[in-house]
Amino acid sequence: MVNRKELDPERSPSAAFGALLRSLRDERGWTQDELAERIGCSGAHISAVETGRRTPTQQFAASADRALGSGDRLQRQSRAVRYRALLEGFPEYVAHEGRAVEIRLYEVGVIPGLLQTQEYASALGDSTVKRGVASREQADERISLIAQRQASLIRTPSPLVFVVLDESCLLRPIGGSTLMDAQFARLMEFAELPNTVLQVAPFDIGVRRPMTLPVTLLTMPDRSLVSYAESANRGHLERDSGSVVPLLTDYHQLQAEALPRAASVAMINQLRKGNP
């Protein structure tokens, strides 16, 4: 075929999706326009998706699967495309988080996703779009994933969730005062749940702070331990007990130095009252 661009599925998740779409279309013997007519878009749109110039939406992947009779192959591949804005390793972590019986979080500078209101998450997402870090669609996918993760906590039996927030999480303003007021209210509601413990690590614990970087520790149903931490470029999931157990020890020491639950809630409430 004249001007038929060669595709390299190894180049990126988008390229892999495009190559799969073209392969399935070729099996049917359809042109791009013929597939487009069945999906309800333009042949130019099909071309852009196949060559990786346009990101496939979940709706597009589902429509293409139906038209091509490919089950959910394109939908599954589209998830990898949509997750490309996430750090490598994070989707794997989310799968473990959804099965964990105990979740321990330590966060610095920002409220962790499991405790964010939709407005707080949206404000962070808007910031990534304005800075050119992510597209609007990628930011929306991140927000949707946060909602899915929060929903996964409502299961039987419920996981125990321990959260230690560095004081910087509370003092960093995200959005306006109304948004932060709602976020503080969300933290206080979270602290009252029967399966949670929320603590604040104040600045004045100084050198007694055993952890300085964010970390997540999971206890799985078989009581094995998993840790997750992020660098600037990727997330790292660690299953080796020799590496994870010392982190758990540090976490217990951090909890001992942090404010008790009641004092932590009182601090959050005071900050909330201080909002104009």
UniProtKB/TrEMBL annotation:
InterPro entries: Cro/C1-type_HTH (IPR001387), DUF5753 (IPR043917), Lambda_DNA-bd_dom_sf (IPR010982). It comes from the Bacteria. SUPFAM superfamilies: lambda repressor-like DNA-binding domains. Residues 21-74 form the HTH cro/C1-type domain. This is Helix-turn-helix transcriptional regulator. It comes from Streptomyces laculatispora.
